[in-house]
Design a protein that fits this description.
By secondary structure, the chain is of the alpha/beta class. The model has no long low-confidence stretch (mean pLDDT about 100). Bound molecules: NADPH dihydro-nicotinamide-adenine-dinucleotide phosphate and (2Z)-2-iminopentanedioic acid.
Length: about 450
């Protein structure tokens, strides 16, 4: 389908020509450009200043070799990336992903989304993302350490507390951030807030570990209350994934009175008719790092299914995809709708395909898009940066309250913006426009030669 604006369609066509092989980047781009039609019409100065052409081209794209040795002394070479997409409103900020599927398209889609997400938090952070096609599965701690050190040996030339501040994403948690932080410090002789998600003893923030999952639930609860006078209490919830985002989404959903029925990883999903037992899930995934089938072995009320996608056939009131991009396609969305889903909240980045989003919206499902709903992780990363700058550490309650305020603020900003531009209730459009306007204002103010 064409974008209903000549200028935006031309920028999209030109970007497609230059980046024909980058399917995920073009998917994320199209979704944003489609929703910007009314603001581009309202602000002719964007076209006059080539603003959209500048927005779609990263300020910098770094690709590098990451050589490392395994425990047997064998040499491996992976590809490392960092995209520094947009610094109009602050230092580049965004996670690092270690997964064999990582390529330039994945990094650019994530970096592009991050621009608007970070803007929505209300904190001064630009958009960036990075990672590698390194596969951490089955690697020893020492192998992970050597990989992370080699990765940081190059990355450290491009980042800094006032330049670019990476964090975690798929395959990067506290352990990897520790190895990278140690290497940065060794190379630079500097204790600084160059990464977020740090250990509490070296300037990490309380609540950062829980932030994305908790933030997702704060957003969804507010959305359900304001849009349909509903709440999570008593609701049946399907959550995919069993990593950082999914585990803490499960915990907060339960605290809000919902029953979480599922958890998954790339090998399949578990359905627990008695409701997921948080302690067992935490032990299996966060402590012992086992496959999700192990959860079913320890819980008589749970069954394991070796089909990751089958999770969307489970009947629920609320679905929270928290694993990876495009995990809900049109068919999965239709199954959820047929089973009566009332709300969908994206914990992962771009987990719903465009066909899936259209099906939810057409059927009146409340839909919380990733760049709004999962902004709690980077929001608390921003709070970690503030604490580092102030050489201070805030209490759990203090950070949790700030996180809640950020998530409620994002919901209301996206909702009010959707009304202002006559898409009432379309939070995809509301979030894209609200996130974009702040960045666009800064880009105009700073002049063209970035
Ligand atoms: P983790 O590495 O902690 O967990 C990822 C989970 O998703 C694992 O259960 C993993 O299973 C599953 N998964 C990953 N890739 C696939 C795949 N291709 N197919 C099926 N399952 C898959 O990552 P996070 O929880 O941190 O990230 C999950 C999502 O949330 C990502 O989209 C990330 O970009 C997004 N996100 C993360 C934030 C953060 O702060 N960490 C902030 C905002 C968004 P397996 O172990 O088998 O691979
Ligand atoms: O997608 C994301 O927002 C993240 N992976 C978190 C980024 C961050 O800098 O905390």
């Amino acid at each position: 389908m064409k974008i209903n604006n000549e200028y935006l369609q031309k920028v999209y066509d030109d970007t497609c020509k230059k980046n024909a092989h980058e399917a995920e980047f073009l998917q994320a781009l199209k979704e944003v450009l489609e929703t910007l039609v009314p603001v581009v019409e309202e602000h002719p100065e964007y076209q006059a200043n080539g603003l959209i052409e500048r927005l779609v081209e990263p300020e910098r794209f770094i690709q590098f070799r990451v050589p490392w040795t395994d425990d047997q002394g064998g040499v491996h070479v992976n590809r490392g990336y960092r995209v520094q997409f947009n610094s109009a409103i602050g230092p580049y900020k965004g996670g690092l992903r270690l997964h064999p599927s990582v390529n330039s398209s994945i990094i650019k889609f994530l970096g592009f989304e991050q621009i608007f997400k970070n803007s929505l938090t209300g904190l001064p952070m630009g958009g960036g993302k990075g990672g590698s096609d390194f596969d951490p599965k089955g690697r020893s701690d020492r192998e992970i350490m050597r990989f992370c050190q080699s990765f940081m040996t190059e990355l450290c030339k491009h980042i800094g507390a006032w330049t670019d501040v990476p964090a975690g994403d798929i395959g990067v948690g506290g352990r990897e951030i520790g190895f990278m932080y140690g290497q940065y410090k060794r190379l630079r002789n500097e204790n600084t807030g160059v990464l977020t998600g740090k250990h509490l003893s070296v300037g990490g923030s309380l609540v950062r570990t829980e932030a994305t999952g908790y933030g997702l639930l704060y957003f969804v609860e507010e959305m359900m209350k304001v849009m349909k006078n509903e709440s999570l209490a008593g609701k049946k919830v399907v959550i995919s994934g069993s990593g950082n985002v999914a585990v803490y989404a499960t915990q907060k959903a339960q605290q809000l009175g919902a029953t979480v029925l599922t958890a998954s990883d790339s090998s399949g999903y578990v359905y627990d008719e008695a409701g997921i037992d948080f302690d067992t899930l935490y032990q299996v995934k966060e402590v012992e790092h086992l496959r999700i089938s192990e959860y079913a072995k320890r819980r008589p009320s749970a069954k394991f299914f070796d089909d990751f996608k089958g999770i969307w056939s489970v009947k629920c009131d609320v679905a929270l995809p928290c694993a990876t991009q495009n995990e809900i396609d049109g068919e999965a969305a239709q199954m959820l709708v047929n089973n009566g889903v009332m709300a969908v909240g994206e914990g992962a980045n771009m987990p719903t395909s465009p066909e899936g989003v259209a099906i939810f919206q057409k059927n009146g499902v409340m839909f919380a898009p990733a760049k709004a709903a999962n902004a709690g992780g980077v929001g608390v990363s921003g709070l970690e940066m503030s604490q580092n700058s102030g050489r201070t550490q805030w209490s759990f309650e203090d950070v949790d309250n700030k996180l809640k305020a950020i998530m409620h603020g994002i919901f209301h900003n996206a909702f009010e913006t959707s009304k202002k531009y006559s898409f009432e209730g379309d939070l995809v459009a509301g979030a894209n426009i609200a996130g974009f306007l702040k960045v666009a204002g800064a880009m105009l103010w700073e002049g063209i030669s970035y």
